From TrEMBL, chains A, B:
Lineage per the UniProt record: Bacteria, Pseudomonadati, Pseudomonadota, Gammaproteobacteria, Enterobacterales
PROSITE patterns: HTH_LACI_1 (PS00356), HTH_LACI_2 (PS50932)
Family matches, as CDD domains: HTH_LacI (cd01392), PBP1_GalS-like (cd06270)
Superkingdom classification of source: Bacteria
Any single Pfam family the record assigns to this protein: Peripla_BP_3
GO molecular function, one term: DNA-binding transcription factor activity
Protein name: Transcriptional regulator
UniProt KW DNA-binding keyword: yes
Segments forming domain HTH lacI-type: 2-56
Alphabetically ordered keywords of this record: DNA-binding, Transcription, Transcription regulation
Length: 331, 331
DNA sequence: CTGTTAGCGCATTCAT
DNA sequence: ATGAATGCGCTAACAG
């Protein structure tokens, strides 16, 4: 491996001068600089970022922890996209770490990023609880921001939308369209996002004086496949409903498939809605009514909190109802 | 920052002993080890991976270069997913770098990963040509594997499928269904993948004695939005066709939207097919006929070439025709 | 403006 | 089995 010393010798200067010529903070005679550049060319020298980082005690990188199984699918791909874009905008490199399948592994992923000396860490938790996250942030010297959880103590270290309220708004809209028998495809049992959306569904129904029918509740696990399975389960129960609200768009599209296989037409026979506003919903036939989650805005905010803490006040993010063709008026 | 020295002092041993206790290659008395572990606990010591990497001259990481604008969308999300999974399977960490918007920036991304001392690099090129990639690989000491290009010299350093042949098979199938007026939505001008698929389309038509009609060719840029625009453009030309083949599934779904808006029913009035076999195609209504690209298999192979070069013979990857509902027989 | 010296935190000789 | 010394490649004082 060719090091800075090789370049220095070839150029007939000291290591320090090469370093200075490269980093440009201190002036180096043009003539010397030229010799150095030529030596770099000849040797094919590439600075060792590792050594540089160690000497500077900084890495210019931000870490992102998400559960591997979730990279797939439009939601997380959009998240990685924005995390990478925004990091680079601040001159930082994004490093991914896998939260895998347990709270412990999510901790391990954070530790890995910490040991890599990332300047800041972004986490979209799946298993770690709010209490655990608060604890981790309390004891961490490097800034950590949590996406999609409302923390108790470190309220400025998180970005999120109010899923329950969003869900209430969605259900209120469905009710306003005349639907009273609204089925709900929940997410994972224990998923805070899923639970909040479910709670919003229940709340909105009760606000309208409707007692939720447990027969109208099925569970999926966020994927399109699971939505399809949930849809079939719902249909097999043979209970009447005029509308299905799925915990996210992916599942909604799975439900649509199940309905169509059963000979139901969308939206004539059954209305359908989801959450997240993923790209496909816009192009699906019928175009999917959904609740937009401003991922771009949230990630931009999260990265700003990490990297420019003084200039970044906490602020709320709002979901937005997107009405398209998949929901029709009834009654 | 708590270092190995703090731990050593607290445990009343030398840095070397702590290091040994941690790495486990050399035996350390159980009793001493216990003291060290306790000291680690008390101090909250986290090894500095940077320093460790520098001392070891290895990083346990593999880099992935792709163009940022492409992270989005199911195709690349699946790629990142598999790259991360397979890397971790080999005990390596995935580091993303952005190829941005030019060949130079793709080079820069590689250089960044090189300077980070990644052990190996994976690149899904967009701007760099085969000749340039061959040149880069020739002069690089760290292994580089190119995804989705057939290299000229470094034939064992790339994984790809034959897009032209796949496309020919697809078009042959469409012809066999009785379609003779088949429109084609190409990708970027100059995209090797897009050009190969287009070439396959032309070849298959000529094989069947049909002269390609330029009126049936439109261009998109891989995104669903661009497919929609291309679809509208095609319809505006007012030329007859019974089938549209899009350069990828995303664009196919955009085309579908355009057709439906024009009052055409799928697949009764127009058949539709794509490439890639993205998740949504399976659930789309009608389910999309497509050509499966074995991304999982290709990435697994690529990572194996990088990390286990001796055990990994080069081999061809095959696309596979997936016939679903969006294409119907005519005539 | 440039050379010399001293670390950054850790792993790894060589001693003992 | 453990300690002391050395070096990984680079940057940052400190001199001149």
């Amino acid at each position: 491996m060719v090091t800075i010393l090789d370049v220095a010798r070839l150029a007939g200067v000291s290591k320090a001068t090469v370093s200075r010529a490269l980093n440009g903070k201190v002036f180096v005679r043009e003539e010397v600089k030229a010799r150095i550049m030529q030596a770099i060319d000849e040797t094919g020298y590439k600075p060792n970022q590792l050594a540089r980082n160690l000497a500077n005690n900084k890495t210019n990188s931000v870490g992102l922890v998400i559960t591997n199984g979730l990279y797939n699918g439009p939601f997380f791909s959009s998240m990685i996209y924005h995390a990478a874009t925004d990091s680079e905008m601040h001159g930082r490199q994004l490093v991914l770490a896998d939260g895998k399948h347990s709270a412990q592994e999510e901790r391990d992923a954070i530790d890995l990023l910490l040991s890599l000396r990332c300047e800041a860490i972004l986490i979209y938790p799946k298993y770690l609880t709010v209490a655990e996250l608060d604890e981790i942030i309390d004891t961490s010297e490097t800034p950590i921001v949590v996406i999609n959880r409302e923390l108790t103590r470190n309220r400025s270290q998180c970005v999120f939308v109010d899923h329950q309220q969003s869900s209430e708004r969605m259900v209120a809209y469905l009710l306003a369209q005349g639907h009273t028998r609204i089925a709900f495809v929940a997410g994972f049992e224990g998923s805070p996002t899923g639970d909040s959306r479910l709670a919003g569904y229940h709340q909105a129904l009760r606000n309208a004086g409707i007692e939720p029918d447990p027969q109208l509740l099925v569970r999926g696990s966020w994927s399109t496949d699971s939505g399809y399975a949930a849809g079939r389960e719902l249909l097999a129960r043979n209970v009447p409903f005029s509308c299905v609200l799925a915990g996210n768009d992916d599942m909604a599209i799975g439900v649509a498939k199940a309905c169509q296989e059963a000979g139901l037409r969308l939206p004539e026979d059954v209305s359908l809605a989801g959450f997240d506003d993923s790209v496909i919903g816009k192009y699906y036939n019928p175009a999917l009514t959904t609740l937009h989650v401003p991922m771009d805005e949230m990630i931009r905010h999260a990265v700003a909190i990490l990297l420019l803490p003084d200039e970044t006040p906490p602020r709320a993010h709002q979901g937005e109802l997107v009405c398209r063709e998949s929901v029709v008026k009834v009654g």
